[in-house]
Recover the amino acids of this structure.
């Protein structure tokens, strides 16, 4: 593997060239992140009048709090469910849209639309569908003998936020799956067809393995999405309730920091989340690099 | 958040600069910023009050700015304070009082403002139940009462008649509420016999005040930061168990946390609802049926003579900033004096449904015949003046009370799902709530 390298003379010019990027990183990432790390090791009133250093007390408190550990487990379940659901549905739709059907481009465009919907708006759409008293789906569920009230039933609330969050991410996954499918050489698929492999077998032995890298990439993106970008949907739909049934880690950071003004604990939670993001990013880079090497 | 506040601050600065750029007669005016959390018709009324103040004198100009919900406004103000850009005047909901009292030099309490600017303030001009909530233990006023309300019982008279009940004799005790609800359900007169908005405020905080039950030790927190919650005592458990039983046989419908329960009553399918007296204007606008108000019911087995309920709503806090001048505080003081004048207080109360915060304001409304024309509008005042104000009915002085309210509602929801009984729900809420109080205490002691 040989790379082309451009060697700049001296040290000043290279430093000058990367300086803007470094400054941006410093001011918009390192500085606030450092602030969060510092705040996570302090106790203080919200007004910042008496702040004092407590070391790792916020963290030990956090991990000794059964409610926080519940939120960790809940977030893992939520991420797994949202990632699986949105990727499975997107894959199914992509496979269908990849076949020769009339109006194919219309379907593709229509399937990409929901990606442009803001999280809070997505939540409102789902509230209109699922509201216990005025929702369109509630009477139908009622006639099936299901007592639908996600405001009081934690399991139903979880299902509601998973549905709304997964729905929003389907479009994104769909685009990548479709692109992945289209980059698979037709000849391979045709050859399998001539050897007598049916659609299911072709999917299982040819398409799925060749989609592997796409799948790996989407998995990390989806986990990151469901862990960090679903706040708007959850807050608008259930505010984390009933009880704490839909309070994921990000919702808890907001509730403790912005609503309850407990900045120390909220910062500690942010730092834990930051560690999670760093881990995910490392994983993602590894996956991408392996994909690059394979090519 | 900080950056956004800076932008907001910059926008406010531009706005005040524009004001200072007005023609000659306005040039000596001192502008100041007032952040509030009143939306819709209430926000328009705030605007009207501010306009009236600006027109009434030539020294000061108040600039009202809507900053979102109570929680959002408070969070924004704290961020602004940290950036040295706090608004001059901030509307803070009653449960934020404990946190604001702990804010030390970030705020200028009313008695301090009064001393520095020479603005005379007589605490006795204010209703006892209102004044108590916003005063220090020794009676000095910390913040200025503004919009105060108290929960009352709202009844749908049409549904009462359909169920064969007398709407002019609404239930006075909880036992009567339960039996009325059962009749309403049996007759099929309403989809929802009983519901409530603000479950914690109505069913816990006011229930405790009415029955003279302590909510927390240290006089509900007025006498020290080391107060401990005690609302898992038998009378509270009895009340929560009553609601759980009613939910089980379909006579009580949970309407959600905080204000979410607002929507059910005006829709016309609810016979009895508990909600703030301040919801009167919204109900009058939306209800297509005859409605009435009544005093909150009590349980004679707990206490034969009910006391006053505690207030909700918000008060005005004067905030400090490094660059603030005495002239600016003087301008703020002039505004506070203006809104406390009896005619202005009465007008505000009549336009919004909040109770008049001054006794003289109530007197003006009475003299104008307002309560004769609007029967039921004075129920809240009657209720706030029922019995004598005790240490248990003066209000709550607990840090991070919004969080504790939320905890109670979470545990109540878990109990409604059948996951625990009333005793377990309140025990768990007390344990979790005390942890919040200890955290708050620690953050205050520094």
């Amino acid at each position: 593997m040989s790379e082309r390298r451009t060697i700049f003379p001296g040290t000043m010019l290279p430093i000058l060239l990367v300086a803007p990027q470094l400054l941006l990183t410093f001011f918009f990432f390192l500085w606030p992140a450092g602030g969060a790390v510092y705040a996570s090791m302090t106790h203080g009133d919200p007004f910042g009048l008496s702040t004092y250093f407590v070391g790792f007390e916020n963290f030990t408190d956090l991990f000794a709090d059964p409610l926080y550990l519940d939120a960790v487990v809940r977030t893992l379940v939520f991420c797994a469910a949202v990632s699986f659901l949105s990727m499975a549905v997107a894959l199914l739709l992509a496979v269908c849209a990849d076949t020769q059907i009339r109006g194919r481009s219309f379907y593709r465009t229509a399937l990409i639309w929901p990606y442009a919907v803001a999280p809070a708006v997505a939540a409102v759409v789902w509230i209109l569908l699922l509201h216990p008293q005025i929702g369109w789906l509630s009477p139908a569920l009622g006639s099936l003998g299901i007592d639908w009230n996600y405001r009081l039933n934690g399991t139903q609330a979880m299902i509601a936020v998973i549905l709304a969050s997964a729905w929003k991410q389907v479009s994104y996954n769909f685009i990548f799956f479709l692109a992945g499918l289209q980059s698979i050489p037709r000849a391979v698929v045709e050859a399998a067809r001539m050897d007598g492999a049916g659609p299911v077998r072709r999917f299982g032995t040819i398409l799925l393995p060749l989609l592997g890298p796409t799948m790996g990439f989407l998995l990390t993106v989806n986990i990151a999405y469901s862990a960090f970008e679903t706040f708007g949907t959850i807050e608008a739909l259930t505010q984390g309730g009933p009880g704490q049934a839909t309070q994921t880690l990000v919702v808890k950071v907001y509730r403790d920091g912005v609503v309850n003004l407990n900045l120390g604990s909220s910062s500690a939670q942010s730092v834990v989340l930051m560690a999670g993001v760093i881990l995910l990013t490392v994983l993602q880079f590894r996956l991408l690099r392996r994909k690059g090497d394979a090519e | 958040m900080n950056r956004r506040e800076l932008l907001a601050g910059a926008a406010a600065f531009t706005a005040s600069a524009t004001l200072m750029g007005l023609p000659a007669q306005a040039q000596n005016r001192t502008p100041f910023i007032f952040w509030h959390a009143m939306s819709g018709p209430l926000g328009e009324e705030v605007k009207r009050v501010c306009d009236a103040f600006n027109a009434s004198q030539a020294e000061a100009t108040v600039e009202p700015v809507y900053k979102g919900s109570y929680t959002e406004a408070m969070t924004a103000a704290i961020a602004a304070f940290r950036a040295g850009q706090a608004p001059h005047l901030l509307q803070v909901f009653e449960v934020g009082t404990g946190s604001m009292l702990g804010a030390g030099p970030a705020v200028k309490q009313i008695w301090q403002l009064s001393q520095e600017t020479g603005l005379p303030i007589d605490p006795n001009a204010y209703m006892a139940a209102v004044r108590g909530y916003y005063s220090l233990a020794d009676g000095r006023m910390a913040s200025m009462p503004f919009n105060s309300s108290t929960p009352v019982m709202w009844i749908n008279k049409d549904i009462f008649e359909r169920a064969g009940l007398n709407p002019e004799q609404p239930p006075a005790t909880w036992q009567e509420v339960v039996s009325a609800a059962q009749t309403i359900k049996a007759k099929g007169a309403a989809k929802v016999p009983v519901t409530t908005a603000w479950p914690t405020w109505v069913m816990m905080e006011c229930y405790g005040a009415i029955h003279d039950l302590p909510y927390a030790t240290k006089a509900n927190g007025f006498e020290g930061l080391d107060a401990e919650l005690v609302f898992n005592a038998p009378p509270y458990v009895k009340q929560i168990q009553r609601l759980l039983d009613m939910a089980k046989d379909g006579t009580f419908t949970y309407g959600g946390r905080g204000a979410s329960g607002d929507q059910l009553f005006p829709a016309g399918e609810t016979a009895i609802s508990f909600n703030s007296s301040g919801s009167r204007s919204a109900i009058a606008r939306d209800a297509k049926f005859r409605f009435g108000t009544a005093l909150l019911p009590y349980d004679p087995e707990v206490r034969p003579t009910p006391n006053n309920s505690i207030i909700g709503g918000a008060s005005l806090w004067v905030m400090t900033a490094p660059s603030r001048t005495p002239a600016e505080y003087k301008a703020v003081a002039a505004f506070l004096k203006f809104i406390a004048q009896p005619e202005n207080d009465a007008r505000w109360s009549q336009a919004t449904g909040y109770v008049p915060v001054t006794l003289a304001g109530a007197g003006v409304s009475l003299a104008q015949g307002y309560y004769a024309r609007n029967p039921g509008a004075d129920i809240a005042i009657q209720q706030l003046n029922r019995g004598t104000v005790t240490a248990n009915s003066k209000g709550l002085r607990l840090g991070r009370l919004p969080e504790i309210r939320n905890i109670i509602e979470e545990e109540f929801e878990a109990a409604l799902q059948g996951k625990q009984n009333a005793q377990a729900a309140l025990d768990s809420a007390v344990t979790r709530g005390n942890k919040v109080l200890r955290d708050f205490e620690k953050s205050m002691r520094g």
